[in-house]
């Protein structure tokens, strides 16, 4: 499976910079599995190689500037770590998702940035 390394930045307007590497479950690599709500199903136009929804882009921008994620910055994100255009690979990776989440150092559910109507002043990350 693949993992994503997110480069840190304090500038929320800077482009999101990341790289993807392959690894195996046996390596025991520490990563954060990121689950997120799609919200708006359209993709951003920021980078044609990185097809993400606006809500996922918000999550990446938030986590690249937030400790402790800023230092580790290693994530598994289905939209980016699975080759979405390869149906055979996508099917095989979906079958592995239980193991991917189970072996993650931490699982984060991203619901979106906090708004004035939110119950919390924190952004929408729930750590499990």
UniProtKB/TrEMBL annotation:
Pfam family of the protein (one): HET
InterPro entries referenced in this protein's UniProt entry, alphabetically: HET, HetReg/Transcr_Mod
Ranges where the Heterokaryon incompatibility domain occurs: 31-118
Entry protein name: Heterokaryon incompatibility domain-containing protein
Species in which this protein is naturally found: Bimuria novae-zelandiae CBS 107.79
């Amino acid at each position: 499976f693949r993992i994503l390394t997110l480069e840190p930045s304090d500038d929320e307007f800077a482009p999101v910079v990341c790289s993807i590497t392959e690894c195996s479950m046996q390596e025991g690599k520490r990563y954060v599995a990121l689950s997120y709500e799609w919200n708006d199903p359209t993709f951003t136009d920021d980078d044609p190689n990185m097809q993400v929804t606006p809500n996922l882009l918000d999550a990446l921008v938030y986590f690249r500037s937030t400790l402790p994620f800023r230092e580790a910055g290693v994530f598994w994100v289905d939209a980016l770590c699975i080759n979405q255009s390869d149906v055979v690979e996508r099917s095989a990776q979906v079958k592995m998702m239980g193991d991917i989440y189970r072996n993650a150092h931490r699982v984060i559910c991203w619901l979106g940035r906090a708004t004035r109507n939110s119950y919390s002043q924190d952004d929408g990350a729930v750590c499990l």
